[in-house]
Amino acid sequence: MTTKIVFPLKRLGAVAPRNAAEIEDSNWFLGCETLDRDYADFDQYKEYLRPLGIKYLRFQGGWAKTEKEQGVYDWRWLDHIIEESVGRGLKPWLQTGYGNPVYPGAGGENLGAGMPLSETGLAAYERWVGKMAARYADKVFDWEVWNEPNFGDNKVNTPEITADFNIRTARIIKEIQPGARISALALGHIDIDYVERFFRYLHGHDACGLFHNVTYHDYSYNPDGNKLAVYKMRQIVEKYAPGLILRQGENGAPSEGNAGGALADYNWSELSQAKWDVRRMLENLGNDIQCSVFSIAEMQYTGNGPVQKKNAKGLLKTDAGNKVTGCKLAYYAVQNVTAVFDNTLERIKDASYTHSLAEGDGNRYWISTDRSIAVYGYRHRETKKRVYTIWKDDAIPGDDCEMTFLDFAFAGGGFEDPVLVDMITGGVYELPAAQWSREGTIDRFRRIPVYDAPVLIAERSLIPIA
């Protein structure tokens, strides 16, 4: 796809994508949701999974699709998905939702549904969870309880009911698979009171240790615009469950306006979608939050759920029959992120802004503007070579790619052969001597083009270049 992004620098090449098999581990997860309701087709997009460079895939277990008659379980559809994924070296992250209408009081089978509450419904749900955990005990090691219990401010799924439901689900899985990594909560939007009551209940029942991480879904038009809410949520988690990992369990932007689901009220394009996805990924990484991209492919929402039209957040285009018709710009942009940012890098936690940078300032940095610019630093765990991510973070991503030219200085950078990298197109550019110099332990960069999508100032050896 042709973009309007132009850098006035010599192009050296482009970021070379890395297959998931080439990456030991990373911060990234990929949404493969709604297969339980046939809104997407796994076989149509499965060949696009490994080339994207993400190992962990989020699936929904689909109780209602598996047990259409009481006591009769047809696992064939889910067996196929799990086996195909594992066979490709990918790691399923399986969610225990939704409910099942074949049992009275067993909850609904769509987004925003109430959880099983009746004695009969809960017993049937627990049987299904136990059978599923046992069936995939040697293939699935990551689990999640339900999905968005507070969607639409659902009045049935109170924080206490949700916490109790999480506990009973986790205990079933842990009994079968003691080493299971279980995600708690799957919050639909950040509600601080909901989080507080949920964790107070877990803590009061000595159940926080059942969980490996807590997930939340927070769709904000500006992908950098929810930091305060996330910070408040993190404070609550740390109060009740110190060390519990925070995971953005589902997030993405559509590639067109007025599409189904969140963020519909904006004139999105493939370019602004790509900017949103990459900014959210790198903002999460820069704040030690695991990140799941929603989703691999567009989904055709039908049935009796709250969304009744195509959800255009997919990285792949699909037609009305869920056949993949092509890759969006966001697919390639996400590839660029996964190719560079894996577990060989560590965040420089004390990289922070100062108005006046001087020798001996540790890992601080300076910028020639007082506008809001996102800057995060990373270094290779072995070579200690560095990469900095930079973008304008004060607005919703748009189609305007006008550059602002800024000066930067980084203490302790130790650059030897720095390059500029555009995360949207993957372009790698030379930084000539006129734009880079070193004064003691401070690296200074002049007239660096910056816009509303991430660019990198990186040591060349850290970038796989094609």
From TrEMBL:
Query: Which residue ranges run through the membrane?
Result: none
| GO MF terms, alphabetically ordered | hydrolase activity, hydrolyzing O-glycosyl compounds
Question: Which InterPro entries does the annotation name?
Answer: GH, Glycosyl_Hydrolase_39
Protein name, please? Beta-xylosidase
This protein's species is Eisenbergiella porci
